[in-house]
Design a protein that fits this description.
The protein has about 250 residues and is an alpha+beta fold. The chain has 5 helices and 7 strands; from the N terminus they run αααααβββββββ. The protein has helices spanning about 10-20, 55-70, 80-90, 95-105, 135-145; strands at about 145-150, 155-160, 170-180, 185-195, 195-205, 215, 235-245. The protein has a 7-stranded antiparallel beta sheet with strand order 1-7-2-3-4-5-6. Helix 2 packs across helix 4 and helix 3 crosses helix 4 (about 95-105). The chain is globular, with a radius of gyration of 17 Å.
């Protein structure tokens, strides 16, 4: 479990944002309007194996993200698009990976929370952030005690850049296949990658031999999907952690 103490988080984040605001790697944008409180959610049901199943609202969020990837068809989108207009209410041009996740959650009927409203969440609560800045997304999940290094479908994946920022990009985990020995094969749906919405497929290593080198390409002979990109985002990216939208 990845965990950061609440004490001093905001002060550290403020210094971090001042630094990263000067970096072209930053995909941050301005604050959005205040969010509404989270709705009551039904607890996840256990399967016959004892593993909980994804809550319906989170399943709907993943389905909506899939539909958006199909509709985008890998075509270039402007930096002011329906996701940013919904979020900001204007035509500003920004990095929109977080806007995409929030839009999908909102379309699924999930009420969103900002980091100022985040508190430890009960296990049966659905939780998705309403942040445009990736560092604030991490802070919100951390304050809700919802950061983990174990992926599940419907979780929010948070990426970092080696030698720079641990918070540069986010996406939605679509599927997870446990390959054993701490290795997982993931598919994700992500916005603002090559200016479009697309599906990625890669291998995530829970215990990498080299720190921060924790996701790798699927072997070429196993790259069988035509609707997924197997080439990694960038060679110097890594997975910081996963925001637990459900437990």
């Amino acid at each position: 479990m990845i965990c950061v103490k609440r004490t001093g988080v905001r002060a550290a984040l403020s210094l971090f944002l001042i630094f990263t605001a000067l970096s072209p790697l930053s995909a941050f944008a301005a604050e959005a309007p205040a969010a509404t409180p989270p709705p009551e959610s039904k607890p996840a049901k256990a399967t016959e194996t004892g593993e909980p199943t994804m809550p319906q609202q989170i399943a709907d969020m993943v389905r909506i993200a899939q539909e958006e990837a199909i509709a985008a068809n890998k075509e270039t989108m402007p930096r002011n698009n329906k996701y940013t207009v919904w979020y900001f209410g204007d035509q500003r041009k920004v990095g929109w990976c977080s806007n995409f996740v929030s839009w999908c959650a909102n379309e699924a009927g999930i009420s969103l929370l900002k980091d100022d409203d985040a508190v430890p969440m009960p296990d049966d609560a659905v939780f998705v952030t309403n942040e445009a800045k990736v560092p604030n997304t991490f802070v919100a999940y951390n304050l809700a005690e919802r950061i983990t290094d174990i992926p599940r479908p419907g979780y929010e994946v948070i990426y970092g850049v080696i030698g720079s920022t641990p918070y540069t990009h986010v996406g939605i985990v679509e599927t997870v296949k446990d390959l054993g020995d701490g290795v997982y094969e993931l598919t994700t749906i992500e916005g603002n990658v090559s200016n479009t919405v697309k599906r990625y497929c890669y291998r995530y290593h829970l215990n990498p031999k080299v720190a921060h080198r924790n996701f790798k390409a699927v072997p070429a002979e196993e790259q069988t999907r035509d609707d997924a990109q197997y080439k990694l985002h960038k060679e110097n990216w890594y997975i910081t952690g996963f925001g637990q939208t459900w437990k």
